[in-house]
Amino acid sequence: MYGIIGGSGFESIIDLKDTINMRTPYGSVILHTGKLGGVEVAFLPRHGVRHEYPPHRVNYRANIYSFYRLGVERIIGLNAVGGIKEYMQPGDIVIPHDYVDFTKCRRYTFYDGPKVVHIDVSQPYCPELRRSIIGAALEVCPERLWDRGIYVATEGARYETPAEINMFRSLGFDIVGMTGCPEATLARELGICYATICLVTNRAAGLQDRLTTKEVLTIARLCIPYIAKIVELTLTKYLARERTCRCREALSEAEF
């Protein structure tokens, strides 16, 4: 089974079968199972069923662990982001190859002691899953695709200031969001493959006069059909059934 983490609205394109209230050591999570393109998937609304959890209050550990309990081996994250680079436009798709974590108050690891683990993130996203997503995106929307990018995560819940965006741009970052970290790291700690599809919903602060949540939601809803097609083709056409990456071996040399 594959896992998908996204915002509200994406579940509308999945043939849902069951809703599961999954209990984990980190809290309870509600997720849905069903099919996308005939493939079994589990969908988890990142912010809760009613979108009640802001980015800094999302229970990232419970979310990722719930997939682990289900036996999910690969997760595709869906993230709305702001475009830091001037040439990025709303509706563009970015498949980041790296991330920088500027969050401040989140639970970043499953290993708070007494076991100490230093997980390797030399390849922050699963390379096998990334390649498959890129292949699917090139088929669906090549004119909108950026196949590399550095994602910077901020704490939220507010949007960033123009000065912050200028700093991020000077440091070479491409897109900014609030939910991409620590999802990727937590998945790696459990040996789960993780990669993300980032939808540019707006130009970042300073590149447009103002930014509203209404604008972000409008772009996201318009783009759900082709993001769904990218996910479907990734799972049904481009991704091999057997994993050949090393994500599952992440813990083998990580314990201190």
What class, by secondary structure content?
alpha/beta
- The tally of beta strands, per DSSP, is 11
CATH topology of one domain, what is it called?
A: Rossmann fold
**Rg:** 17 Å
CATH architecture call of one domain: 3-Layer(aba) Sandwich
Explain this structure.
Strands 1, 2, 3, 4, 5, 6, 7, 8, 9, 10 and 11 form an eleven-stranded mixed beta sheet that branches. This protein has a domain at 77-249: Rossmann fold (3-Layer(aba) Sandwich), CATH 3.40.50.1580. It has helices spanning 60-70, 127-140, 162-170, 183-189, 213-238, and strands spanning 2-6, 15-24, 27-36, 39-45, 74-83, 93-94, 98-101, 145-146, 150-153, 175-177, 193-203. The relative contact order is 0.21. Helix 3 links the parallel strand 9 (150-153) and strand 10. The radius of gyration is 17 Å and the shape is globular. The chain has 256 residues and is of the alpha/beta class. 26% of the residues lie in helices and 27% in strands. The mean pLDDT is 93. Helix 2 packs across helix 5.
In short:
This protein has 256 residues and is α/β, with parallel strands linked by helices.
List the helices and strands and how they pair.
Elements: E1 2-6, E2 15-24, E3 27-36, E4 39-45, H1 60-70, E5 74-83, E6 93-94, E7 98-101, H2 127-140, E8 145-146, E9 150-153, H3 162-170, E10 175-177, H4 183-189, E11 193-203, H5 213-238
Parallel strand pairs: 1-4, 1-5, 5-11, 6-8, 7-9, 9-10
Antiparallel strand pairs: 2-3, 3-4, 5-10, 6-11
Helix pairs in contact: 2-5
